[in-house]
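Supplementary Note 3. Input sequence used for the single-chain structure prediction.
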Amino acid sequence: MRAVRWPRWLVIDPFIVAMLALVVVATLLPVRGTAADVAGTIAKIGVAVLFFLHGARIAPRAALAGARHWRLHIVVLLLTFAVFPLLGIAAGLLVPTLLTNDLHLGLLFLCAVPSTVQSSIAFTSMARGNVPAAVFSASFSNLAGIGITPLLAAALLTGTGGVSLTGGAIGAVVLQLLVPFAAGQLSRRWTADWLGRHKRLTGIVDRSSILLVVYTAFSAGVVAGVWQQVSPGRLAGLLLVVTALLATVLGLAYGVARLLRFSREDRVTIVFCGSKKSLATGLPMATVLFSGASLGLLLLPMMLFHQIQLIVCAALARAWSTHPTPDPAGPDSSIEDSSRVDCDKTPTISP
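The predicted structure, written as discrete structure tokens, is reproduced below.
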């Protein structure tokens, strides 16, 4: 009798499983009162540490190796910070049939966050795409997102009660996000090598910070009774909407890349960098920008989208890795063989 093998394209992120488990724990055992205040303070410290590590890990000089593909980077930025938000606005037509107001706010914020770094690069390499360009595009998206995402979120959610860039909100963004990130960049001379040697430890810090954010956010929601506002049907509707959102952006990314006559390698890079959203950046930003007990529901679209994008992009990368790579079709299609990885191995992916 043959053993049943797990499909290689079906990537189930253990980190997402851990977050969903914490949602259940928060539902059954929410943190309250003074303990909630202490947990919230620790979560804020964790967010600052998280962005310090983001800054310390992004190497500007390494990313600049792919900077000359300016046409590609413009397309990725437009997909990330223009096409996604427009689709999020259009999804407002689904309220109240498929989405609640809070879930739509979460979807709008999802559309405002930058692209992922590690998973975008990993899938691009797996599919034999333009890895140097992916490194620059994903890194620049995160660098720009620290400034663009709060402004874009404020513009998208104006009048909804979700977020407004008051003096206090701007100060929170600066102190909890920009200052730690800048400190991380400035510290690279002393910290980059150490962080490179201790990736497992920094990964634990990353995930622990985000898990604490999830637990405190959903605890506050449970205490306020927000789960009474969301039925299983609403969750199913949200799953359908985020799946359709990803499918639409993937189709647009590939279609635009072909229309603009990018090479195959560059088309792969545009698809994977332009269709992804960063959970590791988005969740901590949400805790700074949003307030109130509804934060837990606002995080749901991002959590679901993250898992779906991993499954779909893993399947695409696996399929494209079996296609022969054609000769470069133009000046923007160069790729160094040394920047590729073994396509028969599933990459390790962080949020």
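The radius of gyration is 20 Å. Residues 324-350 have pLDDT under 50 and may be disordered.
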